[in-house]
Write a structure and sequence with these properties.
Strand 4 and strand 5 form a beta hairpin. By secondary structure, the chain is an alpha+beta fold. The protein has 6 helices and 5 strands; from the N terminus they run H-H-H-E-H-E-E-H-H-E-E. The protein has 2 domains: about 80 residues; about 120 residues, 2-Layer Sandwich (Heat Shock Protein 90), CATH 3.30.565.10. It is about 55% helix and about 15% strand. It is elongated and about 75 Å long. It starts with 5 loop residues before the first helix and ends in a 6-residue tail after the last strand.
Length: about 220
Amino acid sequence: MFFTSSSDFNERVSIRAAEFCEQVISEMGAELHDEVIQKLSSMLLHIERIERAAGDPSEILNLITRMRTDFDSVTQDVRAISRRLNPVHFSDATFGGSIAQLCDSMQRPGNGHITCTTIGEEQPLSQLSFTYLYRIVQELIHNAFKHSSAWKINVVISWTPGTLIIEVEDDGTVDAKINGITSILQNKRNTLHMRSLTINATIRFEKGKRGLLVRVEYPVIGNTR
């Protein structure tokens, strides 16, 4: 990308930053509505039904059981949203170790399993690239569970000479729709593409063995970001 002047550079950076923030706000707002508010509304209906079933102990017990299930689900959703909003803190010094911890924390016992494999010798990353690549993997896992109804997600981190390759593959995307989905995702301007562009990485959406395969390539050597 070429800039005609410093003012042109500042303008484009400002526009991209605004787009990035707006995209994040929109996604979080939609997630709060879909994952939390709707379930809280359902719990309110349960309370109203309990009030109407005051003389039926068995029905009250049944409704309380449903409320407990809904409450547990809301709690998990709020924790997931909180993790995405909080600053990234790396208790492990390595990128591979941090991604492994992320995968472990995003497991859904009984509903979803994540495997994480690291290949090759790790190379140093800048703090910005470390953070953005971490966020990209986090969002890909979140999207796979939410939109693809994935049961299993495989994350593979491959360190090759001068390049970091990250592959995230799920088994939840319907095969008949995969070609159309990959085309839409490849051309969609979202936080995944914006983060990748910021650190000079590339992201590709392809058909995997059983679902969607997302491939992120980051040139470690010669990259200043």
